[in-house]
Amino acid sequence: SKEDKVGTYGNTLVRDSFDEPDYALIDTLFSLAEAYLFAQLVDFKDCNPGKIREGVDYARMYKDVRAAVDLCHRDGTLKQMVAKDPGRYINEDTMIVPMLEMLRESGRATFLVTNRYVVLRWNHIVPHT
């Protein structure tokens, strides 16, 4: 009943924006890896009390992960590691070329946006072009 719901949850509507700093957006493949690293650290902290420095809370751990990931990306460390062994980090996708060919043959206008990092990835993902 409505009374039960109000009794349990109250009658105040909270419209949370789910934005930073209270929430982190996980909306790219890059941010998925960052979230996974943070989840592993949370698990480590929970399972190993005392192994993380006193006073380091989850918010501090997240900020440290963000800073470390940004640094690796900015200073080129991440790209260098992937370039050394792309097969370890990038999955070949045999369906990309047929998909792009299908789009071209259908007459659809296609706009492919990439960044300067694409050559390393493209040569590994589609090695037979």
From TrEMBL:
Keywords: Hydrolase, Magnesium, Metal-binding
A GO MF label: metal ion binding
Family the UniProt entry places it in: Belongs to the 5'(3')-deoxyribonucleotidase family.
Name under which the protein is recorded: Cytosolic purine 5'-nucleotidase-like
Organism from which the protein derives: Trifolium medium
